[in-house]
Amino acid sequence: MKLPAAMALLLALISAAAQAADFDAAQTRRILGHGPWPPAESADRSNRLSGNRDAVRLGAMLFGEPRLSGNGAISCQTCHRPDHGWSEAKARSEGLRLQDRNAPGLLNVRLQRWFGWDGANDSLWAAGIRPILKDSEMGGSAAATAKLLREDAPLACLAQRVAPDYATGDDEAVLVLAAKALAAFQETINSPRTPFDEFRDALAANDRAGMARYPEAAQRGLALFTGRGQCGMCHTGANFSNGEFHDTGLVFFLNDPDRKPGTPRRADPGRHGGIAQLKANRFNLLGRYNDDASGQASIPARHVEQQHRNWGEFKVPSLRNLTATAPYMHNGSKPSLRDVILHYSDLDEDRLHSDGEAILKPLKLAEGEIADLQAFLESLSVPNDTAARYENLRREAAACR
Amino acid sequence: MRQSAIIAALCLGLISAPAWACADIPAQARQVQAAQFRLIVTPVPAPIPLNKPFALDIRLCDGRMAEFPQLTAVDARMPAHRHGMNYKPALTKIDWGHYRAEGLLLHMPGNWEFSFDFTGAGKRERLTFSFDAQ
Ligand SMILES: [Cu+2]
């Protein structure tokens, strides 16, 4: 080999090594673990309507249906707004009365194992029954839902297609049918690939040009996320959530505007209460409405066990599409992503249980690091067309004869 | 007659664990040597997935069956994070020295310590091994 050629090769190797050094082997493996996106589709075994196209249309119709509520004015869409990442701008939702929690965005919701900030439901379809029946939320009933599905022409037409003999079932069975159609629809609201996903695939393919297209601030933020920040301990996998529950040291007490003087302040028990509710819920996957004969779908419900430390734990949310879903956290207490990052930077260690998660430490981030983490989080969001597809589905549904 | 002979033999501790259980050890199995026997643990599915339920097939080998202690509990913890699993595994005895634990789930990446509690002949024993979940 001629000397200049050897020199050039050596130089190329050195510069490649310098770039690759940004992420060590462990970090590279962790980054690859946040993909691929989109993940493989699989039907929900607990819901026989999962993937059924008429059920998807029926679900889309029901999602915007205010007659499911007691006062005829509140639909799922009131709190899960298609133009707001399927969440809403209010810190805490307002149904018939003020709720304790923030409405989570529903994009990619099919990837969850537990539903609700406290995971009180173990299926997507049961998570749609709760708001309908809860007095303070929609205040509806099985009877009113069944009557609507039997009497409204387009709804009845679609229900008939999905389950020809549904009208002879009892009210509760019709409510479950409606909830399963709602779930079939929600399974279709998924978000597309993001700049992060392009970077991750370029890294997997060792495509340097592709990697270089990812903004440097986002790359530095990603290095913090998978390194010193330890964020990926809980925000794991392609959807950036392990689907489980942790205490991140937020204030326990609810800010109750209507609290009467002299009454104690209320606290949100989080996962501790969620497990109790799950076990008491007749619509859980241990009950008669689970369509999965294999027993696979109900494994989490069968084995989950309430522990003292569950008190004040909340579900790890996905970090995709966050630019659309402010405010943040279970109680909507953080107005912006910067506020969330500052929370992790200045964690109150005294507030975290002494016997609790040992990995959360105040990160004491520098101003540049805060901006980098934010740039990384923002690189997990891109606009999506789910709102337009929802309107299409509703038009198709309304045409059922 | 034959059955009672086997039972008698078992009582005398004459029969060893069946050879088939201890010969074909899957590549993904973990083994721990105890004083009286060898513990062989095979995850289902293997390797253990992160954030998904899995089961453990658990066998006791290389000892006299009648001397095998009872497996009473299976658990996994993250010592560095000071917490265990969010799920309680269910343990079933399939045969002499053969158990299955269902419903385990490792919800964070990093080092987990699996533990297996035995009681037998009036004493308790705990066997453990570490696993790096990724
Ligand atoms: Cu941990």
Poorly predicted parts of chain A: 9-21
Largest sheet of chain B: 5 strands, antiparallel
Q: Evaluate the radius of gyration of chain B.
A: 16 Å
How many domain modules of chain A?
Answer: 2
Query: Largest interface, and how many residues on either side?
Result: A-B, 25 and 21 residues
Q: What brief labels describe this structure?
A:
heterodimer; A: mainly alpha; Cytochrome Bc1 Complex, Chain D, domain 2; 2 domains; two-stranded antiparallel sheet; B: 134 residues; mainly beta; Immunoglobulin-like; 11% helix; binds copper (II) ion
What does this structure look like?
The complex is a heterodimer of chains A (401) and B (134). With 401 residues, chain A is mostly helical. Helix content of chain A is 40%, strand content 1%. Chain A has helices at residues 3-20, 25-32, 53-63, 76-79, 124-133, 142-151, 153-162, 171-186, 195-204, 208-212, 216-226, 271-280, 299-303, 337-345, 367-378, 386-398, and strands spanning 245-246, 314-315. In chain A, helix 6 packs across helix 7. With 134 residues, chain B is mainly beta. In chain B, 11% of the residues lie in helices and 49% in strands. Chain B has a 5-stranded antiparallel beta sheet. In chain B, strands 5-4-8-9 form a 4-stranded antiparallel beta sheet, with no helix packed on it. In chain B, a hairpin with a 2-residue loop joins strand 6 (90-95) and strand 7 (98-104). The A-B interface holds A 29-30, 33, 232-234, 236-237, 242-245, 299-300, 302-305, 307, 309, 355-359 and B 50-51, 53, 80-83, 86-90, 102-105, 107-110, 134. Copper (II) ion (CU) is lined by residues 78, 81, 83, 108 of chain B.
